[in-house]
Design goal:
About 15% of the residues lie in helices and about 40% in strands. With about 220 residues, it is α+β, with helices and mostly antiparallel strands. The chain has a single domain, classed as Beta Barrel (Lipocalin). Strands 1, 2, 3, 4, 5, 6, 7, 8, 9, 10, 11 and 12 form a twelve-stranded antiparallel β-sheet that branches. It starts with a helix and ends with a helix.
Length: about 220
């Protein structure tokens, strides 16, 4: 019991003064447009923690962010037609970590319910390019055993050396059942910011990319 009280107090202090998230809320329940068929130049990559990150800003502020040590992703990117690209990320929820360990412990036990729901997943269904060059990414998010279709903002950067895909959006955790049965519920804001990012070296990268990639990774 003393550990629970200490954890409650620690989390309360951590969230005091936390700012609001500026992430764009996901559009929940949006019907996705038809999938665009992959082009012959499509490249497929399987990425792990060394090439990708999945994060959850649980306080809707800048104080503490959860990262997931065990996650895998699959990217299928069509350089000639990015709208035909797809992403699929699967996260082991019990691998959540934070700079303050008790925050991750509380998140896994009280909100992610990792024992009951050991995985979370985001799978895209289609992409549409916006006038500003960014994308609307349509897909399905599975969290705490609940699946919802949604649309979120995304960017795709492709050059001769590497491919980078990013998406940052906010979701109402209550919609996915990420709620606490205990007294922690009131300490975490309703909206949670999720960030997905992958940065891979292209399999077709020319030899001239080697020095550039080493300098960028520097």
């Amino acid at each position: 019991m003393s550990r629970l009280v200490t954890a409650y107090a620690t989390l309360a202090v951590a969230l005091v003064g936390a700012g609001c998230s500026s992430a764009v809320p996901a559009g929940i329940g949006v019907v996705a447009p038809p999938t665009i068929e992959a082009t012959p130049d499509a490249e497929r990559y399987v990425v792990g923690p060394d090439q990708a990150t999945v994060e959850a800003q649980v306080s809707a502020g800048a104080s503490y962010t959860l990262t997931f040590a065990r996650q895998t992703g699959t990217l299928v990117v069509s350089p000639g037609k990015p709208e035909a690209s797809t992403v699929d990320f699967l996260v082991q929820t019990e691998s959540a970590e934070s700079s303050l360990g008790v925050v991750a412990d509380i998140a896994k036990d009280q909100f992610l319910h990792s024992v009951q729901f050991p995985i979370a997943r985001f799978t895209s269904s289609s992409l549409r390019k916006r006038p500003d060059g960014t994308f609307d990414l349509y897909g399905e998010l599975e969290l705490c055993g609940t699946k919802k279709s949604l649309v979120v903002p995304a960017t795709i950067a492709i050059n001769a050396c590497r491919i980078e895909v990013k998406s940052e959006f906010a979701v109402d955790r209550h919609v996915f059942g990420a709620v606490s049965d205990g007294s922690f519920e009131g300490l975490v804001s309703d909206m949670v910011t999720l960030r997905i990012q992958a940065d891979v070296r292209r399999s077709s990268a020319p030899p001239s990319c080697k020095k550039k990639l080493e300098a960028d990774d520097g």
